[in-house]
Amino acid sequence: MNADTVRLLAEKARALSAAVNQDYEDGREHEVELGPDARARHSHDGLAEEEGQDLSEEEFRELIADLNQDEGAELVAIAWIGRGDYDAAEWAQAVADARGRVNRRLATYLLNMPMLGDYLDDGLAALGA
């Protein structure tokens, strides 16, 4: 797998991770409670207040979907090496084991790694790339 592609995916993974709000309180994300009289006075232009769609995750998923099985297995192996599950010397075994992870849910599997960007960079460094 091309090291530049891995670095691009690491960068996108970091952007997605940074977009997750880390200041949840009791499972609520900045809830605003309006009293009955405030609701009656509250009006807005829905189009003006509509947030722009964040396409980062969609882009990440499309990039992963474009990988062939060998590239997907190598990407997972790089992440596993970066995470410390395997050593760089165990590259062939890591890739062989990673083949079982390459399916249509690969992007979800990768996105569930909380430090994916770091794992990919660390994996590349361990492999000398």
Strand portion: under 5%
What's the overall geometry? globular
- Percent of residues in helices comes to 55-70%
- Helix count from the secondary structure assignment: 8
Query: Sheet with the most strands?
Result: none
Count of discrete domains: 1
Q: Which structural class do the helices and strands define?
A: mainly alpha
Instruction: Tell me the span between the first and last alpha carbons.
Output: 11 Å
Classify the oligomer.
Answer: single chain
The unreliable regions are 21-32, 44-53
Average of pLDDT: 81
What are the secondary-structure elements, in order, as H or E?
HHHHHHHH
From the alpha-carbon coordinates, what is the Rg to the nearest angstrom? 20 Å
Number of beta-strand segments: 0
Characterization of this structure:
- The chain has 129 residues and is mainly alpha-helical.
- The chain has one domain (3-19, 53-126).
- It is built from eight helices and no strands.
- The chain has helices at residues 3-19, 36-41, 46-49, 56-65, 69-83, 91-98, 106-111, 116-126.
- Helix 1 (3-19) runs antiparallel to helix 8 and helix 5 (69-83) crosses helix 6 (91-98).
- It is globular.
